[in-house]
Amino acid sequence: MGKVKIKDTVLDSANIITNIESNNSLNVLDLMGINLEKNGYVKGSFQKAIQEREKVFPTGLMTTSVGVAIPHTDAEHVIEETISIGVLKNTVKFTMMGTEDEDVDVKIVFMLAIKDPSKQLEMLQTLIELFQNEKMLEELSSEESEEKVYNIFKRNLEENK
Predict the structure, then answer these.
(1) Model confidence over 82-138: pLDDT tens digits?
(2) What are phi and psi of 30, to 5 degrees?
(3) Domain edges within the chain
């Protein structure tokens, strides 16, 4: 399918997974992390690190229409910067960002593997701007084709520049 750069970060279609079946947020993170490691973007330590960070700093976020999560972890676990998109078959509870006990029913996970902390903040801001686009989130949340998810996300990134 392809690769595109988002502010020096690679969106590789190989890092998009649809129809993820799970009832546990940590399992979702593990599946996505394993895929990133298999594709050469992160080290073997990434999965454990992202799960541990999620427990302390939750990343669930309720948008107007679709629950999302933006998990990320420290640069030392990253080989090459990328973003992974996971579309869940059914929603999975993630703890809401900034809380300890409020849950969000998440349908899309945007996993960041970023080396430079300032880029991480930029990418989070870019994603949060994109989350204002309800139509895009609804399209992504019901899509079963990795290629279509890639194309929808890429198109909306280009329109958002």
Answers:
(1) 999 999 999 999 999 999 899 999 999 999 999 887 777 788 888 888 898 999 999
(2) -65, -50
(3) 3-155
Which region, left, alpha or beta, applies to residue 38 given φ > 0 means left and ψ of -120 to 50 means alpha?
alpha
Tell me the Cα Rg of the chain.
14
Structure-token match 């989070």, residue found: 124
**Got the DSSP string for the chain?**
--EEEETTEEEEGGGEEEEE--S-HHHHHHHHHHHHHHTTSB-TTHHHHHHHHHHHS--EEE-SS-EEE-----GGGBSS-EEEEEEEEEEEEEEBTT-SS-EEEEEEEEEEE-SSHHHHHHHHHHHHHHTT-HHHHHHHHT---HHHHHHHHHHHHHHH-
Please determine, looking at this structure, whether the domain spanning 3-155 carries the CATH number 3.40.930.10: yes
Rounded mean pLDDT, 37-43: 96
Task: Give yes or no for a contact between 54 and 96, defined as CB atoms under 8 angstroms apart.
Answer: no
- pTM exceeding 0.90: yes
Number of alpha carbons in the 13 Å side-chain half-sphere of residue 74: 7
Cα dist from 37 to 15, 23, 43, 44, 81, whole Å: 10, 22, 6, 6, 12
Which two structure tokens, joined as six digits, stand for 20?
A: 């993820």
